[in-house]
Amino acid sequence: MIFVTGGTGLIGSFLLRELQARGLAVRALHRGPTPPAAPGVEWVQGDLLDATLLASLLTADVTHVFHCAGLVSYAPQDEDALLQINVEGTATVVDACLARPGIRLGYVSSVAALGSPTPPPAAQAVDATRILDETATWDLGASHPAYATSKYLAELEVWRGVAEGLSAAIVNPSIVLGPGDWHRSSTRLLRYAHEEHRFYTHGLVNFVDVRDVVAHFLRLVLELPALPAARYILSEGAYELGDFLRQVAAAFGRRPPTMAVPTWAAEVIWRWEHVRSLLTGARPLITRDTARAGRHSVVYSGQKATAATGLGFRPLAETIAWATQALKTNRTAQPSVVS
């Protein structure tokens, strides 16, 4: 029996499909309305913070836990929720696993948990590209987005479990692309291009196909149980955000963005959005963290994962073609077009 959290999310939903294809029995936790019935999947409604419930769900026949649930947000009003869901929720999962010796845990973290890159040496160009791998260390003295902090602290909970005897593997995906909910997480980038917005910001952004995330995740957790506990970056490569949005718009047959927002303008906009959100209670369209995302030219290396699993990563063009075609086919998932 496999236990999965976050089975209704982008990664979790594709993970469930692959587990079903392998004929494995799955028990999946969900919070909202009960998802459609699926062969081999036992849906259980509940809260990730309910320690008693989790303990009851990790029965003696559960051999693996895939912890995919988590909150992705850069909105200031979500800071408490990020700590509750990502940190306390992971601690609860780890404790439940420790109570069942022999369980192997797979945790979906993020490249955000690696921390921000250090400034380049004075002799190096400011926009010089830096490569980050799993050896990157968290700078306790630096300022980090609340989301990044929550994923870093969640990883510490997994490492606490490992210190107490838990078998575990951590994957750190970059921005995950796939045909998911238009209004959630990384799929909103595809929606942004579909809606024909004119503006984009400068920056280098790293991407990975959701199918590759699932393939590496399953190999590391299910098929390579003898591997010692470690983290693995999952990322195909880094691309200019403007180029990415133009590729997506072309795949949708939409008008691409044409106007790059200068750095000073982005700084003004996020401050205005912050004030607007305070006055109206509405969620900001852009935050300080999203406005500044991608300014440092960083490439996250997935070489450790490919060496361990023997698997590669699909090129971005293939991922865009697949995801946009799937979203065009599923007309009910498409948002209204902004003129």
TrEMBL record:
GO CC annotation, single: cytoplasm
A molecular function (GO) term: aldehyde dehydrogenase (NAD+) activity
InterPro entries listed in its UniProt record: Epimerase_deHydtase, NAD(P)-bd_dom_sf, NAD(P)-dependent_oxidoreduct
Residues of the NAD-dependent epimerase/dehydratase domain: 2-221
Protein name: NAD-dependent epimerase/dehydratase family protein
